[in-house]
């Protein structure tokens, strides 16, 4: 795991029937999972998460009778969840989030007697309902179905006695919240961004372990029940109640909250009430104008001379020692806040599993990864001496590698991201071998490539600078582009020239080569890469690697064969109908708009830290081989200030303008400030382009002016692109209304991207997703040999003077 391995998962692994652990996560594997892996009757754990796996989950995996952990998250796996998985009686963790799964939620999964974690976030079960039987899981601790396109009502889950984490947010759920009391162990209830109605169930006031109650952006009404936090002990606890943007008009009890309870009510009628004094008294907090914050402060270790490192294991206690540093991640914890009390429990859990004392573990820092995963940087210190001996290092490292920690549903599964052995521990490297490495070495031996693989694995483990992306040498990228030959040049943008490259494993990539005026200091460039390596969403173009060799700075992205939206909208203007390439129907345009909006929303709200794109335009929205939209060219974006806990919009960013005329927020010219609302304005222009097919500046006028005049005159259909085929006039009007809302002159009157996404989901709801996989795109989705003589003409050649600002357009075959 985490070795930057490429290629397909070897089907020969399926012959190693004694194999117990197969850990391929955090690599660059492509292709589908081989059905032969279903022959591994003794396999306990299968992890292929955070790769680029495609295809469906093989039904043969239902034969893995010993399997306890299936972790396939963060890939591009398609198809339905095979019902055969319901035969896995030992399965405890089924983690499939962040893929492209479709179909319905299998009813048969309730037959899994040992299942404790079911995590399916960010998939495409559009129109599927949550089966009522899901309320009968016998041992489930975590049910996470965030952003899956689910409809219908929430089933009664009160019979699941151990349930502590429930996330059904960002779906299309309707009806009321079930009244029955949930498990006393419940820490997290995330039901935001649905269409729920009714009131908050009184039973929520009986949940003493609750950390988060998130119900924002629904249509709930009635009274805010202060009993949720009143008359309860919150020692060592923290509670956040988020009720923003509903229809609450009253309150039962006193809305004044303890210091460790945070209440958000912005966007409810109660915030305008004059009959509730406590609202007026605490308006600036509960109605969103100020943020309640708490800080933890520890006195740092004094600057005492130490040959190794001063490590603080608790306030006021520091050791001069050579620690073992560990990069560790909880993949699916069943809590929301990592409170001091939970931190203490975690330290006891780790040290008891390692047979160490609690003062030998320090949590250097931890990073909350979108409330889904918790990444921690741990330091272990020896007892009564300055460094561990060799046997201790091997024992501790092997304990992490072998998943032999004490079993816990509360902390859930973990993964070891890095265990570097540096300084006095450098000589121990040769004595520590991962079980997965031994497995892969066995397979590679059969392919007579053992020595090369072993050498590369050790080198990468020691020298890797930034995780999640590959560091290329100048020579590698030069070879991929035939010495940056002009025949591989596919565009030029503000950063520099863009080349199409082919890596040794036949992967096609787009290489952005920075010009001298774009170069940053080494530190700035690597900081930018470190940020980009953490941005992962199906609607963002993925950064695969970088190079900072011999004074060059280059970015390596996935190759997008269907070019950008601007060229699809423009090319037919210069071609006669008989020779025109495929055009985008209204259905296609609607889904392109929704996909790109989701990518921008991720940048604004889920990236850590948040990112303002600053140059959203149709030429920066690229289409993959199935015409799915991906936002590009945010590689040189500046960081946005982080949102507060109440999702209050951040302060402004002042910077040199990087936007494009026609898309740039007019407020910028007065304030010299860019915010997330500047991105919303630019996206509004994109929506108008999709609707009209026009450029922002068209025949001496601006697209916003033309569309607004037509809308106000009731003739918006007159500016609709005639090439969109059949469409619903009501849908076109709604899209125009949304676009013009985004393009309001005053930033505060524009909607947030979360609202834009919700509106577009409504527009797309009755518009069936088009069969984008046409004959044209089938050609481009079929990988051909780089030496193939087949040439697919680019529509850029049809556009005189196009300089390809985004630098990512490639080829689309005309009919």
From TrEMBL:
Entry keyword annotation includes Ribosomal protein: no
Entry-linked SMART domains: LRR_TYP, S_TKc
Positions of the Protein kinase domain: 484-768
Alphabetical keyword list: ATP-binding, Glycoprotein, Kinase, Leucine-rich repeat, Membrane, Nucleotide-binding, Repeat, Serine/threonine-protein kinase, Signal, Transferase, Transmembrane, Transmembrane helix
Subcellular location: Membrane
Stored Gene3D superfamilies: Phosphorylase Kinase, domain 1 (3.30.200.20), Ribonuclease Inhibitor (3.80.10.10), Transferase(Phosphotransferase) domain 1 (1.10.510.10)
InterPro entries noted in UniProt: Kinase-like_dom_sf, Leu-rich_rpt, Leu-rich_rpt_typical-subtyp, LRR_dom_sf, LRR_R13L4/SHOC2-like, Prot_kinase_dom, Protein_kinase_ATP_BS, Ser-Thr/Tyr_kinase_cat_dom
Coiled coil: none
Topology in the lipid bilayer: Single-pass type I membrane protein
Chain positions recorded as ATP binding sites: 512
Gene Ontology molecular function: ATP binding; protein serine/threonine kinase activity
GO cellular component: membrane
Cross-referenced PANTHER family: PROTEIN KINASE DOMAIN-CONTAINING PROTEIN (PTHR45974:SF216), RECEPTOR-LIKE PROTEIN 55 (PTHR45974)
Record family assignment: Belongs to the RLP family.
Name this polypeptide is given: Protein kinase domain-containing protein
Organism whose genome encodes this protein: Capsella rubella
